[in-house]
Amino acid sequence: MISDDYLWPHEPLKEYLSKLDHSVPITLLYGEDSQFKNDGGKDIKGKRKNVYLPAALRTGHHIQAEDHEGFNTKVNEICDMVDDGSDRK
Questions:
Q1: What DSSP line would sit under 17-34, residue for residue?
Q2: With a threshold of 0.70, does the pTM exceed it?
Q3: b/e map of 30-66 (b: 16 or more CB within 10 Å)?
Q4: If DSSP codes are grouped into helix, strand and coil, which group holds residue 2?
Q5: Which end of the chain lies in a sparser environment, N or C, as judged by fewer CB atoms within 10 Å?
Q6: Residues 30, 36: contact at Cβ < 8 Å?
């Protein structure tokens, strides 16, 4: 489905993530002002297990470019959780 207002895919992740094996953990990072809002992440989390939603970064849609330090910190935190197994608790 294409959004009428801006001509970008409307909720494209939901279609792809629904096809992903449910044993695969998912982490969704997004900015506070992103077109992918927290509600979309909560909706995905409500439909499958193994979904981690860390707090949104204070950015727009391109978090890795707008706040590279905050993005790298979040990614390192997630990697540490996976390494120590706390992502499975």
A1: HHHS-TTS-EE---BTT-
A2: no
A3: bbeebebeeebbeebeeebeebebeebbebeeebeeb
A4: strand
A5: C
A6: yes
